[in-house]
Design goal:
heterodimer; A: about 270 residues; alpha/beta; five-stranded parallel beta sheet; five-stranded antiparallel beta sheet; globular; B: about 375 residues; two-stranded antiparallel ribbon; 9 helices; 7 strands; disordered N terminus
């Protein structure tokens, strides 16, 4: 007999969080709802601290979306702990997200979820918890789903092709440095800023990585972590450790970069 | 001689480049072909009857002559316009200029040379063809002394000019009608877009989800929320029809919307509405403030983890009314999900439609963080 499953609910609208909690209590009394949070960052922090088996993640939340929270959890989940939680995405109406969930066979709920639909989701979760075991197969399947969901345009309206960025303009006081994109070795998200690293310089720009990505050529610039994008030709070698993480050494910079398990599939021998 | 030999259709045979002057001319020609044929036939009939009365002889030969001459003139008019359009394209291509639908000879500049060509070459060509059909031998048009030649020439000139005048007027009327239809369609589309943005499905379903929970927890509050939702939906649907309502009604609708948002966002949303009593009856376009309030919620406060405050206020500034929507949200410079700009565009368009250049919408960073959107409109005379 397994110990009762534990769940985290991340939902920014308090009534909806309370409603989901009440419905789950009625349908699945043994489920232990260990945490209710109202934004993505707290969802990640609480999930990492409490290690629940299931996370209900609202898609539109302040700070960080439910998908971004799932990505952060997949990247930061410890290797030696319990398996990655099962994710159930919750949304009111996101046409493109729903299509993507459907295509990837990801668990999702549409608000307002009626009792029969929630009951079906509960049955499915119980079955998946029972036969999930310890294999890496389940993890790989989840990672594959997340990769597809996080891919460009997967869950967003098909935007017009953004123009490619040629030169980065980094401002320091009254001075603007012009950095050709081709000279950038890697970009790293740092709080509200983006670090732009060339062979001999570092600049800070005020831009979110997710806003920069559509302006970069995906063949030349590879996302290797939710906060890192590296120019492929600047990578010297990639070394994989037993947990699935990949360590990259660079041609013109001393740092070692880490590719998360979500993006480790980029580095395989030809 | 056969008609096919002078048919100008051959000019248009090579597929015209997209958006070229030739393509536009060809499109115009085809669009009005039925009306042109009808008009030319009627005119020819009138001329044949007129000549029969003037000169005697039978109606049949006059019909043959007037139809062949009329057909030749018409083909020459339109043929010349196609040739001019093709020349325009060729000239632009040789200079590497972009092709454009408007040729050199569009409008009246194209009518004059094509009428000249038709008047000079139409009658001899038409009469040669008619001679071949009837077996007669008409006197040459160059023998200008004969009365019959002068009459034919005068009739041709008058008929050509009349037909060009009438046909180009019809053309202009048709294009004016097409423009009016396009404008109407655009207006309908923008109204539909406005309605779609106000009945945004995400907002609607989230509100319904909240309502569903509230029914179980607090039926009384649920009922109040439902009343707000009904008022909001009703006013949204009515706003696309009414031209103006009182500022007090505008604030009530904003209050409905914000109350719904307040239930959804809970303690993350604080609301202040400030409408001085003296301004309550000022007429404003319905739901003018709605897009600004929605922007404040969606782009200012919802993305902020701790939420914040939204203030909607009205004040008088001399002879002008200032409506302000201020939020303490993430501000205009925040990275992340940018809007489509549809809301602001829509407010600006409505202001321009109702007040011309006399109204303004200004968007600024609010002092102390967040965003401040201000609309300034002239106060009506009787409320100043």
């Amino acid at each position: 007999m397994n110990p009762p499953a534990r769940a985290l609910i991340a939902e920014d609208e308090p009534l909806l969080a309370a409603g989901l909690q009440a419905d789950l209590r009625a349908l699945w009394p043994e489920l232990d709802i260990t945490a209710m949070v109202g934004d993505g960052e707290r969802a990640v922090a609480q999930a990492l601290a409490l290690k629940p088996e299931i996370c209900f993640l609202d898609i539109r939340m302040p700070g960080m979306t439910g998908l971004e929270a799932a990505q952060a959890l997949a990247e930061d989940w410890p290797d030696d702990g319990p398996p990655l939680p099962l994710f159930v995405f919750v949304t009111a109406y996101d046409q493109y997200a729903l299509q993507a969930f459907e295509a990837q066979a990801v668990d999702y709920l549409v608000k307002p979820a009626d009792r029969p639909r929630l009951a079906a989701a509960v049955t499915r979760l119980k079955r998946r918890l029972a036969d999930r075991g310890t294999g890496t197969e389940a993890l790989q399947a989840t990672l594959g789903q997340l990769r597809a969901l996080l891919g460009p345009g997967a869950t967003a309206a098909p935007a017009a092709e953004a123009p490619r960025l040629e030169v980065i303009q980094a401002q320091v006081g009254n001075l603007v440095h012009l950095v050709p994109v081709d000279e950038v070795i890697y970009f790293e998200a740092a709080d509200k800023y983006l670090r732009v690293l060339t062979a001999d310089k570092e600049h800070l720009i005020r831009l979110a990585l997710k806003d920069l990505l559509p302006q970069l050529d995906p063949k030349r610039f590879w996302q290797i972590h939710r906060s890192t994008v590296v120019q492929a030709r600047c990578i010297k070698e990639a070394r994989r450790d037993e947990s699935g993480k990949v360590y990259l050494s660079l041609r013109e910079r001393p740092e070692t970069l880490v590719a998360s398990r979500l993006y480790a599939n980029l580095f395989r021998g030809m | 001689v056969t008609i096919a030999a002078v048919t100008p259709i051959a000019v248009a045979a090579p597929p015209p480049a997209a958006g070229s002057a030739l393509e536009a001319a060809w499109r115009r020609l085809r669009a009005r072909a039925p009306r042109t044929v009808g008009f030319v036939l009627a005119l020819c009939l009138v001329i044949a009857v007129f000549l029969t009365v003037m000169e005697g002889k039978g109606l049949a030969p006059h019909l043959v002559y007037s139809f062949t001459t009329g057909a030749c003139c018409w083909l020459l008019v339109d043929g010349t316009r196609l040739v001019l359009a093709a020349l325009t394209d060729a000239w632009r291509r040789s200079r590497g200029q972009p092709l454009d639908a408007a040729g050199f000879a569009s409008g009246w500049r194209g009518v004059i040379p094509s009428v000249l060509v038709a008047v000079v070459f139409g009658p001899p060509l038409g009469m040669t063809i008619a001679d071949a059909i009837t077996g007669n031998q008409s006197p040459s048009l160059l023998q200008f002394g004969s009365a019959s030649t002068r009459l034919t020439f005068a009739v041709t000139v008058i008929a050509s000019i009349t037909s060009v005048l009438v046909l180009s007027t019809m053309e202009r009327l048709a294009s004016a009608r097409a423009q009016a239809a396009t404008a109407q369609r655009q207006a309908a589309e923008s109204q539909l877009k406005l309605l779609q943005s106000q009945l945004e499905p995400h907002m609607l379903f989230n509100t319904l989800a909240n309502l569903r929970v509230l029914i179980g927890l607090d039926p009384e509050r649920a009922q109040a929320m439902l009343d707000r939702l009904i008022a909001y939906l009703r006013s949204t649907l009515a706003a696309s029809r009414a031209e103006s309502h009182a500022l007090a009604a505008e604030f009530e609708r904003i209050d409905d919307y914000l109350a719904l948002m307040g239930i959804r966002m809970g303690p993350r949303l604080a609301i202040t509405l400030d409408l001085p009593a003296e301004l309550r009856r000022v007429p404003v376009p319905p739901l003018l403030l709605q897009p600004l309030v929605e922007n404040s919620i969606q782009h200012g406060l919802e993305p902020k983890v701790d939420g914040g405050r939204i203030e909607v206020s009205a004040r008088r500034a001399g002879s002008r009314l200032v409506l302000a929507v201020r939020d303490s949200g993430v501000g205009l410079q925040a990275p992340g999900r940018p809007g489509t700009g549809f809301g602001l565009t829509q407010v600006r368009e409505r202001l321009a439609t109702v007040y011309g250049g006399a109204a303004a919408l200004v968007l600024n960073e609010a002092a102390g963080g967040g965003t401040l959107a201000e609309i300034e409109i002239p106060l009506p005379e009787n409320t100043r």
